[in-house]
Amino acid sequence: MIIRELHPDDRSPLEQILKEAGVFSRAEVGVALELIDLVLNQPEQKDYIIYTGLDRDVVIGYYCVGPTPMTEGTFDLYWIAVKTEAHNQGYGKILISHAEGLIKLKGGRLIIAETSSRPDYENTRKFYLKTHYKEVARIKDYYKIGDDLVVYGKYVSQSGAQI
Asked: At 101, which CATH number?
């Protein structure tokens, strides 16, 4: 897998990956695309960083991270997605490992990832646990009744506390 900064020609395949994921609503896909467009159209911005993973020149997935406002060394993992047919082949682990390395290089120490408690997000929650993230918070009925916000965290530098 080759991981590189987002290119304009990645937008369409990433849109397809997000739509075919089966868990993101139309609004969520729209937000993800807004961030992709922001990174493509405003390269000087510093809030969002997007890298794309390719396998044999085919876009296989991506991640979007950024420094959390009003913090020192905390980053948000806003998006990570891999083609549905490429799940459970290690691509997600490679992408998240790359993100963690990049965040460390940028002086980051803590990564926060938020997700849903819905049953269709179970694989996402398992993914975070398998990659050594810990559930650090849960807000009941956050998104809607019966859909909690689940927050995962991972310290990526020696200066970070243990979760």
From this structure: 3.40.630.30
When divided into structural domains, the chain yields a total of 1
Residue 71 belongs to domain spanning: 2-155
Q: List the end-to-end C-alpha distance of the chain, in Å, as a whole number.
A: 30
Q: Is residue 161 part of a domain?
A: no
- Rounded to the nearest integer, the mean pLDDT of the chain is 95
- Show Cβ contacts of residue 124 under 8 Å, excluding neighbours closer than 6 positions: 23, 115, 116
In a domain, 162, yes or no: no
d(CA 132, CA 155): 10
Per the domain annotation, does 16 fall within a domain? yes
Tens digit of each residue's pLDDT (9 = 90 or more) over 143-160: 999 999 999 999 998 665
Residue 135 has which token pair? 């559930």
pLDDT band of residue 15 (cuts 50, 70, 90) is very high
- Angle (deg, nearest 10), helices 11-20 and 26-41: 160
Per-residue pLDDT tens over the stretch 36-72: 999 999 999 999 999 999 999 999 999 999 999 999 9
